[in-house]
Amino acid sequence: MTIREALKRARARLEAAGVPDAAYDASLMLSLLLDEDRLRMRFDDLREVEADTLARYEAMCARREAREPLQYIVGETEFMGLPFHVEPGVLIPRYDTEVLCEEALRLLGESGGRVLDIGTGSGALAVSIAKHCPEAQVTAVDVSDTALRIAQGNAEKNGVQVRFVKSDCFAALAGERFDMIVSNPPYIPPHEMAELMPEVRHEPELALAGGEDGLVFYRRIAREAAAHLYAGGHLLFEIGWQQKDDVCALLDSHIGTPRALRDYGGNWRVCAAQLR
Q1: CA proximity to 168, closest of 142, 202, 130
Q2: CA atoms within 13 Å, Cβ hemisphere of 206
Q3: What is the pLDDT of residue 105?
Q4: pLDDT digit string, tens, across residues 144-189
Q5: pLDDT recorded at residue 198
Q6: How many C-beta atoms surround the C-beta of residue 116 within 10 A?
Q7: What is the Cα–Cα distance from 151 to 138, expressed in whole angstroms?
Q8: Angle at 166 (CA atoms; ends 184, 114), nearest 5 degrees
Q9: How far apart, in whole angstroms, are the C-alpha atoms of residue 233 and residue 114?
Q10: pTM attached to this predicted model
Q11: What pLDDT sits at residue 180?
Q12: Rounded mean pLDDT of the chain?
């Protein structure tokens, strides 16, 4: 089977399964298997695909046909211009989360400080902060052994030092204080979980479900954070686009005067406050 024929068949399968951008996904997966860029592959698409490569391609297409996220299938995604390995068991970093990371870096400036990332997942926030602010001393916590293993690998992949700790929020950090705490906690309420895209439902529920109203982790972190922040320290959250008022109210009660930032799509995405 030629490259052209393999791509045509894969695209048809993915389109029939309702996969968005089916042509792109089909092309990307085959280009990775052939270890060549998509443009070169397209210019020379009458070449035969070797049988073992074709079998691997069929297996990848079957996973995508089942609406498994493309990032899990290819094993990598990008965040803040850096490569991150992802696999089932960790949340896939989103472009919108870069707004949180950029604001953290702005506040840290060149001097850095002690930073805590709660619920690190793939390590996207912790590793990116450590990479783009070398003066920062970054600690990252998660309850998932899988997440901590993947995050540690991503720190090594990007050549940064991050201290990883298995901890349920602040549980394993008694007596420790930080200049900044960042978190992209689970924030999806039950009624929205059932409406998620098929791809998102492949991601770990532990990293998505935020309790009956989506605010369980915001309440807990906001309530406990003051005891772990230095005077003038910052707490920054990623939020769901409808949660601004509720999360700002929590910050106002426990930390300080809140402010909110929108993402590049115009939705509310970050709530932050400085400890009074």
Answers
A1: 142
A2: 14
A3: 97
A4: 999 999 999 999 999 999 999 999 999 999 999 999 999 999 877 7
A5: 80
A6: 30
A7: 13
A8: 60
A9: 10
A10: 0.91
A11: 98
A12: 93
* Per-residue pLDDT reduced to its tens digit, 26-77: 999 999 999 998 888 888 889 999 999 999 999 999 999 999 999 999 999 9
CA 222/CA 273 separation, integer angstroms: 10
Tell me how far CA of residue 228 lies from CA of 181, 233, 263, in angstroms. Answer: 9, 9, 28
Tokens representing 103 are: 């604001």
DSSP string, 166-183: E-STTTT-TT--EEEEEE
Report d(CA 30, CA 19) in Å as an integer: 16
Residue with tokens 């369980």: 216
Task: Give the pLDDT confidence score for residue 209 in this predicted structure.
Answer: 60
Counting every residue written for the chain, the total comes to 276
Please tell me the distance from the alpha carbon of residue 48 to that of residue 113, in angstroms, as a whole number: 55
Going by DSSP bridges, is the β-strand pair 229-238/268-274 parallel, antiparallel, or unpaired? antiparallel
Backbone angles phi, psi at 210, to 5 degrees: -105, 25
- Sign of torsion over alpha carbons 159, 165, 168, 169: negative
| Beta-bridge partner residues of 72 | none
* Segment 17-24 long-range contacts (CB within 8 Å, at least 24 positions apart): 17/64, 17/65, 17/66, 17/67, 18/67, 18/198, 19/64, 19/65, 19/67
Long-range contacts of 200-203, Cβ-Cβ distance < 8 Å, separation of 24 or more: 200/69, 202/67, 202/68, 202/69, 202/72, 202/88, 203/69, 203/88, 203/90, 203/91, 203/92
pLDDT digits (tens, 9 = 90+) for 64-112: 999 999 999 999 999 999 999 999 989 999 999 999 999 999 999 988 8
Please tell me the distance from the alpha carbon of residue 120 to that of residue 181, in angstroms, as a whole number: 12
Residue with tokens 């009074």: 276
